[in-house]
């Protein structure tokens, strides 16, 4: 089966290619923006004698470039992601790019199975009670415009995929990873905290982090792509999750000392209300970086389940303890990722 992987040269994309090869899927077409990323994928493929990797360079914003990449494929795994940039750029790379990809998919003569790598950010967790369980039954966000740009763009992206499936009838499987971490990734999720004014504001406290090690996440995507049911969603988090406080303490011990200031939830909510009020009074001149709605969505101390993912045969390749050890070992040599 020929499989197209978008974002194949990225942090998660490379791991997806590796896990697909490990599952015997050797005919892979890797979509790249930067041809230099092919070297890393070739090194991965060298471990699999039967691997047949094809590299295509395409900009997902350009419909003309995408159609040849999709042609002849039986499955498309959409892992390309816009993690930073202006709001317009992030919507272009998440929503417009996805529409172009979907147009190419539905114009193919043969049916194509589509796998979307979505995000935890699309779920309406701000409406849940503090400490509530987040799983596949959690409703989608009802007020995406009140979340950050990334969550809003991913929400619209996922909606677009469901709309196209309803109209054209192709098979669709959606995965919603939590915080993906590992060598080559960022040191801190905003669920842990933020660097502001020369200090690290520790916002997560005793909240459980929805971590998934990059290889475990890629394994989940491969398993769901090959065994997941059409029309289903699978949340991706690992076992034995740690709290934000535990993660930060381990980071300080094994990577580097960080001057951190703990911010309790009640203080964060109070500050969020003040920021929102001043933003409204200034008519948006002071951006509402924090709002009570965003705070409830990110730091309300939810619990997380991976039971549905396990029901189709997924198991984490390594434990959270091992994942943190490997990540921290890499982080010591990657200080530029600490921002």
TrEMBL record:
<dbReference type="Pfam" id="PF01370">
    <property type="entry name" value="Epimerase"/>
</dbReference>
<feature type="domain" description="NAD-dependent epimerase/dehydratase">
    <location>
        <begin position="3"/>
        <end position="236"/>
    </location>
</feature>
<dbReference type="InterPro" id="IPR036291">
    <property type="entry name" value="NAD(P)-bd_dom_sf"/>
</dbReference>
<dbReference type="GO" id="GO:0004029">
    <property type="term" value="F:aldehyde dehydrogenase (NAD+) activity"/>
</dbReference>
<dbReference type="InterPro" id="IPR051783">
    <property type="entry name" value="NAD(P)-dependent_oxidoreduct"/>
</dbReference>
<dbReference type="GO" id="GO:0005737">
    <property type="term" value="C:cytoplasm"/>
</dbReference>
<protein>
    <submittedName>
        <fullName>Nucleoside-diphosphate-sugar epimerase</fullName>
    </submittedName>
</protein>
<dbReference type="InterPro" id="IPR001509">
    <property type="entry name" value="Epimerase_deHydtase"/>
</dbReference>
């Amino acid at each position: 089966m020929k499989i197209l992987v978008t974002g194949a040269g990225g942090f998660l994309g490379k791991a997806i290619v590796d896990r697909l090869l490990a599952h015997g899927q050797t005919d892979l077409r890797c979509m790249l923006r930067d041809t230099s990323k092919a070297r890393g994928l070739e090194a991965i493929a060298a471990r699999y004698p039967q691997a047949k990797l094809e590299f295509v360079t395409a900009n997902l914003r350009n419909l003309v470039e995408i159609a040849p990449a999709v042609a002849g494929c039986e499955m498309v795994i959409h892992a390309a992601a816009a993690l930073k940039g202006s709001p317009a750029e992030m919507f272009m790379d998440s929503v417009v790019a996805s529409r172009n990809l979907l147009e190419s998919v539905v114009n193919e003569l043969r049916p194509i199975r589509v796998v979307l790598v979505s995000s935890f950010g699309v779920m309406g967790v701000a409406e849940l009670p503090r400490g509530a369980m987040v799983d596949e039954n959690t409703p989608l966000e009802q007020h995406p415009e009140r979340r950050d740009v990334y969550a809003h763009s991913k929400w619209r992206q996922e909606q677009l995929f469901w709309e196209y499936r309803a109209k054209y009838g192709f098979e669709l499987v959606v995965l919603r990873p939590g915080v993906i971490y590992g060598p080559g990734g960022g040191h801190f999720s905003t669920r842990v905290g933020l660097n502001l004014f020369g200090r690290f504001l520790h916002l997560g406290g005793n909240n459980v982090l929805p971590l998934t090690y990059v290889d475990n996440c890629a394994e989940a995507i491969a398993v769901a792509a090959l065994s997941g049911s059409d029309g289903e969603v699978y949340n991706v988090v690992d076992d034995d999750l740690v709290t934000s406080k535990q993660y930060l303490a381990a980071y300080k011990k094994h990577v580097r000392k960080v001057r951190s200031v703990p911010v309790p939830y009640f203080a964060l909510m109070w500050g969020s209300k003040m920021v929102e009020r001043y933003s409204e009074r200034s008519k948006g001149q002071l951006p509402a970086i924090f709002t009570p709605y965003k705070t409830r969505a990110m730091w309300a101390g939810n619990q997380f389940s991976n039971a549905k993912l396990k029901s189709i045969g997924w198991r984490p390749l390594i434990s959270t303890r091992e994942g943190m050890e490997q990540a921290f070992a890499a982080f010591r040599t990657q200080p530029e990722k600490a921002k």
